[in-house]
Design goal:
The complex is a heterotrimer of chains A (545), B (310) and C (362). Chain B has 310 residues and is mainly alpha-helical. Chain B has one domain: ABC transporter involved in vitamin B12 uptake, BtuC (Orthogonal Bundle), CATH 1.10.3470. Chain B is built from 13 helices and two strands; from the N terminus they run αααααβαβααααααα. In chain B, α3 packs parallel to α5. Chain B is globular. Chain C has two domains: 75 residues, no CATH class; 269 residues, ABC transporter involved in vitamin B12 uptake, BtuC. Chain C is built from 13 helices and two strands; from the N terminus they run ααααααββααααααα. The radius of gyration of chain C is 22 Å and the shape is globular. The chains are: A alpha/beta (545), B mainly alpha (310), C mainly alpha (362). Chains A and B meet through α2 of A and α8 and α9 of B.
């Protein structure tokens, strides 16, 4: 398969028609890192174009340039053949570019119609807005109550509001940014169908930004593949298959992990037979993956029994959840995001209190109410959102490395700069943390290095249990590999690892056992070998397996 | 009990209501603007300064021209100048809003006191406007319908504030800026601009309030003419749970407390006046404590917004 | 842009701002018929150069500094405490009440005054703290409201003999407390021809101590963590409730201590060892301002407090120049606003430079 840039001559489109959007040489740097590096992109009307790439490949930044949230350092933009400068979201909107955001665009206390009306100009006419919402809802199968309070809606419904908000402006170019991360499989399928409706009848250009192969295969006409800020391939979807895409995305010969990635949830090739075909295939390093499996029966280190928790508003977070993690094993928690994975991590970080049920570490009951009790009991956490609870950005690298227990670098209550420095230097070397020095503020580190700081700190405390929540999210490929290796190493050293991830590939790659979460409880458990994608996806979607 | 009798007698006296109406007027002017400012996400602690500036400039305006209308316009300008400093420094230059607000209060107090002693301000209250029939309603009638004419502007300002907030796009964007500035920003709203505008509106109403103070209630300028009522306006907004109805209600409650402080000792000696004065504040505090889970403060209240920072 | 040019920028901005503030004040004075140079001279003389004046200024600065230190501590914990005025009043009231109740010998009573002053302030801040950590009431609102409640409470107490009112006050125009007997008062140290109140040494010592504690102790580390990232702090065992509450209590204690020292030290315009209406003289608000202007750092707060205090002591000399003493409030206000401008401008310039630098590479 060619890895050069092929253009879209195979596409059945009037070659003389001007592309809706043409981006040339878009470059954006954040400090030393190039988020986008000379990216070219062509979007045509009547086409669904996919932008595929791993997390950190630059897709989001590219879209932010198009929508006016980020100004490119270099490059040009042409809309319908005319050069344009997109300085802010308002300009983008005037040019007919609309984006369905993943987060951060809806105001909770306001109603659906107020949110949809937000950001436009002109007089406020509630009736007109409501009418339009009903219209759009009917046309695209996205019915919703205009007077509902957005804060009360489910994730799927909120996304509907986002879509309606976008479509209301009648954009000629519609961008969907990672739309299925909070949707169940059925909701995803119906979403892709609405793509077709949005595009087909009305000559719009639709962009689907995603890191999921199966989605792109199922829903797009052509694909631009990005890796590390650059465009590596442009393919017509009908001429591509999963392994091709996977290889282009990752840029190495396909390992077992990516074979599994190619199968995914919705792809036609999914199924137990397909999985069986790939067992025994050696990956690039020559090791038979099968020999890495089969966990030994070891003592249970972490045990949750009938754990239940509610949010302050009464929303159920965890519902009678029970699971055990053994020493030396990696238990993978699979599931669509929003089914309790985050609360699970939060409970084990002493951030959420259980309303009932209990937690035991090595047989000793640990209270979820007492701050710091989990950490003191030997539960290390790599949190899902390190900025939220993992690091303090304004503190130095050294200070972050002793965050959980500053007494380690202190004598009788007074911090000892010498020992702090020693600890920091040791960990920086051991974990290869790229930074200006132990006194560098943490915000000056890249995402991957910040994650290394978290990893270093947690592992250094020699935890009995390690919770890794979405540990490789937002990292580049190199950092992902490093993290993965470290997690394997931790398990090999006897740590009980709980891996929470919405990336099924990651779980299939690392876990010895897999448990599926749905609506706050574990709905199915199996050894990795017994894991077949059909069963997993059924469980993840809430059906009994 | 004697207390109840005392209260009953105080409330049977129409001058209680007149006093309450006068106190309430000032508070409602200030609070209807402060309400919008707080809904946009800022605590406008310079209301005190705005009121005083409004009072001073309206007195100056009247002294120079002899016209109440011009005096009131000057009052508005005075309030909006203070608003200008507060708005531009905290929401364009990113200075801390509390420092700016508190400093403005000190500055205006000093400036007004200084200038008042240098210049002789000659003012009086405006002419009364009687609403026939209605002003004969026992007790309340005189208080509400027989006041100097600027008083009646209240009946315009409150609906205006409501209309701005709930019937215009501007109001929608202001509310969004106060609840979730990140989402508002991503939706294309200039959050800090809306906050600045909200503060300017607060300056507008507070300026009117200052003029009200001069031309309706007091008649003479004195640097102590506001003495803390700006803070009461802020308290009223909190008391009212950041709704307009609640805010106006809060102003009435505080105003009645102030009026009772004057009247009640004539009938009943048992309640210390300090308790009366503190009472609305205590109610506000306890109200917040009891209705903790329903405190509907704008989520982003008093938190500055800078794009790119959480 | 290198450090040299950057420092030059800062100095330039500050000089320009201060000049603007002073210039503006000068214009105001001239326009109203006074002599601005005379006024500034009077200010300098009244606060510094006059006989025994800088000692007086130090004495006035002491409570401001203490209030500022308390504010810095609660700010580090991520709390917005704007009720220092009230905490100071309650602290002073406690000190007066228990001081006269216990009536011990000289030095002992001083300790009593200070301890109860701190307790009073802590209690008052603690109310807001409890409201915040048990009921979720934003402390910015509760501390503000409690200021009025405090002043009413204190006014009430001053009207009652069984509380604070001096015995045999019948017929007196104002309600005041008993006067503190001479041997119970805070001593002054006679240095360089100035009477320097003991409170000033205490305040500076506290400033050094707080600065050290915040930067170098585990407690300070945890406090900073709590302020910057409460979730991470919670994971690490720093309970928002207990740690944050403690920070509030300490913050109030400093304000209360300031009030007690004002009473026992009887310095510049501090009501002559009596507790009177209007006792606090806005020292609470000024102390809060000092903390904010000093950008919440303890050592700079010493200097800032001195400047603010200087404006107060200096203003008493201004009257003799024929200009209204009130003008010093104007100078103070303009000065603070002016001092806010350089950091703001630098912040905006930095952002603009960062943006331009990236787009310049086209």
């Amino acid at each position: 398969m060619s890895s050069g840039t092929s253009d879209l001559t195979g596409v059945d489109v009037d070659a003389a028609s001007t592309p809706a959007v043409e981006l040339r040489g878009i470059t954006k740097r954040f400090g030393a890192v190039s988020a986008c590096d000379g990216v070219d992109l062509v979007l045509r009307r009547g086409q669904i174009h996919g932008i595929l790439g791993e997390n950190g490949a630059g897709k989001s930044t590219l879209m932010k340039v198009l929508i006016g949230l980020v100004l490119p350092d270099e490059g040009s933009i042409q809309i319908d053949g005319r050069p344009q400068q997109i300085r802010d979201p308002l300009t983008a909107a005037k040019l007919g570019i609309g984006m369905v955001h993943q987060h951060f665009s809806l105001v909770d206390p306001l109603t659906v119609w107020e949110n949809v009306a937000l950001g436009e100009g002109g007089r406020l006419d509630p009736e007109a807005v409501r009418l339009r919402i009903d219209e759009i809802g009917e046309h695209y199968g996205l019915a919703i109550d205009p007077y509902a309070r957005v804060g009360d809606l489910t994730a799927g419904m909120r996304q509907r509001v986002e879509i309606i908000k976008c479509l209301r402006r009648d954009p000629s170019i519609v961008i969907f940014d990672e739309p299925t991360s909070v949707l169940t499989p059925e909701e995803s399928t119906s979403l892709f169908k609405s793509f077709r409706d949005v595009v087909a009848a009305e000559g719009r250009a639709v962009v689907l930004v995603s890191h999921k192969l199966d989605e792109v295969l199922a829903a797009t006409d052509d694909v631009t593949i990005m890796r590390q800020g650059k465009v590596v391939e442009k393919i017509v979807t009908s001429e591509a298959d999963a392994p091709t895409l996977a290889r282009a995305m990752v840029g190495r010969s396909v390992s077992l992990r990516n074979e599994r990635a190619a199968l995914g949830l919705l792809g036609a090739a999914a199924g137990p037979t397909a999985a069986a075909d790939t067992t025994g295939v050696a990956d690039a390093s020559g090791v038979d993956p099968d020999s890495m499996v089969s966990p030994v029966e070891r003592p249970v280190v972490l045990s949750l029994r009938q754990a239940s928790a509610r949010s302050s508003k009464g929303v159920v977070l965890l519902d009678d959840l029970s699971l055990d993690v053994h020493a030396g094993e990696i238990l993978g928690i699979a599931g669509v995001e929003g089914n309790g994975q985050r609360p699970l991590g939060d409970v084990l970080s002493s951030l959420v209190t259980l309303s009932s049920g209990d937690i035991h570490v090595n047989g000793v009951a640990i209270s979820s109410k007492v701050p710091g009790a989990m950490a003191a009991a030997g539960v290390g956490v790599i949190p899902e959102d390190r900025h939220d609870s993992g690091v303090v950005l304004d503190m130095t690298v050294a200070e972050n490395l002793v965050l959980m227990d500053p007494n380690l670098a202190a004598r009788r209550g007074v911090m000892d700069p010498a020992s702090l420095l020693a600890i920091a230097e040791q960990l920086i070397t051991e974990f290869d943390i790229q930074c200006a020095g132990p006194d560098a503020p943490l915000w000056s580190l890249s995402g991957g290095n910040q994650q290394r700081v978290v990893l270093a700190r947690e592992l250094w405390q020699q935890p009995k249990v390690l919770i890794a929540a979405q540990p490789t999210r937002g990292l580049d490929v190199g950092a992902i590999e490093y993290m993965t290796e470290r997690l394997r190493q931790a398990a090999a050293d006897g740590v009980a690892v709980l891996l929470i991830s919405s990336e099924l590939e990651e779980i299939l790659d690392l876990a010895d056992r897999i448990a599926v979460m749905y609506r706050g409880r574990v709905v199915g458990e199996m050894a990795r070998d017994d894991a077949d994608l059909e069963r997993l996806s059924l469980l993840m979607g809430g059906a009994a397996a | 009990m004697d207390l109840l009798i005392g209260l009953f007698e105080a409330f049977s006296n129409s001058s209680t209501y007149v006093n309450a109406a006068l106190f309430a007027g000032l508070l409602i002017f200030a609070a209807s603007g402060e309400w919008i400012a707080e809904r946009s996400g800022t605590i406008n602690i310079s209301v005190e300064g705005m009121l005083l500036a409004g009072a001073f400039t309206s007195a100056a305006g009247y002294t120079v021209t002899g016209s109440f209308v011009i005096g009131m316009i000057c009052g508005v300008l005075g309030g909006m100048c203070v608003a200008g400093v507060q708005a531009e420094m905290s929401h364009r230059l990113t200075a801390d809003q509390f420092v700016v607000g508190l400093t403005l209060n000190i500055l205006i107090l000093g400036l007004a006191g200084f200038l008042a002693r240098e210049f002789d301000l000659d003012t009086k209250t405006a002419s009364r406007l009687e609403v026939p029939l209605l002003n004969r309603i026992p007790l309340v009638g005189e208080a509400v319908f027989d006041q100097p004419w600027p008083f009646y502007l209240l009946f315009l300002i409150v609906p205006l504030s409501w209309w701005l907030m709930f019937r215009t796009r501007w109001g929608l964007e202001v509310r969004a800026s106060g609840e979730d500035p990140q989402a508002a920003d991503v939706s294309g709203i200039d959050v800090n601009r809306r906050r600045r505008q909200a503060i300017y509106y607060a300056g507008f109403t507070a300026g009117l309030g200052g003029a009200f103070l001069l031309f309706v209630q007091v008649g003479r300028f004195d640097e102590g003419v506001v003495s803390g009522r700006g803070f009461i306006a802020i308290a009223a907004v909190i008391f009212g749970g950041w709704t307009l109805r609640g805010t106006v209600g809060g102003c009435l409650v505080f105003a009645i407390a102030l009026a009772l402080r004057l009247q009640l000792p004539n009938y009943y000696e048992g309640i210390p006046t300090e308790l009366l004065q503190a009472f609305p504040f205590l109610v506000t505090i306890f109200g917040m404590a009891i209705f903790a889970h329903r405190v509907s403060a704008p989520a982003s209240l008093a938190r500055p917004f800078v794009r790119g920072l959480k | 842009m290198n450090d040299q040019t950057r420092r030059a920028e800062w100095i330039g901005l500050y000089t320009a701002s201060i000049a603007l503030a002073l210039g503006g004040s000068a214009v105001l004075i001239q326009v109203t018929g006074g002599g601005s140079w005379a006024v500034f001279q009077a200010l300098i003389e009244g606060s510094l150069t006059g006989n025994g004046r800088w000692g007086l200024t130090l004495g006035a600065a002491a409570p401001m500094l203490l209030v500022a230190l308390g504010t810095i501590i609660s700010a580090r914990a991520g709390l917005v405490n704007i009720g220092q005025e009230g905490q100071l009043l309650i602290g002073a009231a406690f000190a007066v009440y228990f001081g006269f109740l216990i009536r011990g010998p000289g030095p002992f009573n001083l300790v009593v005054l200070m301890v109860f002053g701190a307790i009073g302030g802590a209690v008052w801040a603690g109310v807001a703290g409890l409201l915040r950590f048990r009921r979720g009431v934003p402390e910015v609102l509760s501390t503000l409201l409690l200021v009025t409640v405090a002043s009413q409470l204190v006014a009430y107490a001053l009207g009652r003999e069984w509380l604070l009112l001096a015995a045999d006050s019948a017929g007196a125009r104002n309600n005041v407390s008993e006067q503190l007997p001479p041997d119970n008062r805070l001593p002054n140290l006679d240095l360089f021809g100035n009477q320097i109140p003991f409170a000033a040494f205490l305040a500076v010592a506290f400033a050094l101590f707080v600065s050290f504690a915040l930067a170098r102790t585990v407690w300070g580390f945890r406090l900073r963590m709590l302020g910057r990232n409460p979730n991470a702090a919670q994971r690490a065992g720093v309970s928002q409730t207990s740690f944050g509450l403690r920070a509030m209590l300490i913050s109030g204690a400093f304000a209360g201590l300031a009030g007690a020292l004002m009473f026992a030290g009887g310095g510049f315009q501090f009501s002559n060892f009596k507790f009177v209406p209007g006792f606090s003289g806005n020292i609470g608000w000024t102390g809060l301002l000092v903390a904010l202007v000093a950008r919440e750092k303890a050592i700079p707060a010493i200097l800032v407090a001195f400047v603010f205090a200087g404006l107060r002591t200096g203003s008493s000399f201004v009257g003799s120049t024929g200009v209204e003493a009130r003008v010093t409030d104007v100078v103070e206000g303009l000065l603070v606003l002016a001092l806010l401008i350089p950091p703001a401008i630098m912040f905006i310039r930095d952002r603009r430079r960062a943006r331009l630098a990236t787009t310049a590479r086209t």
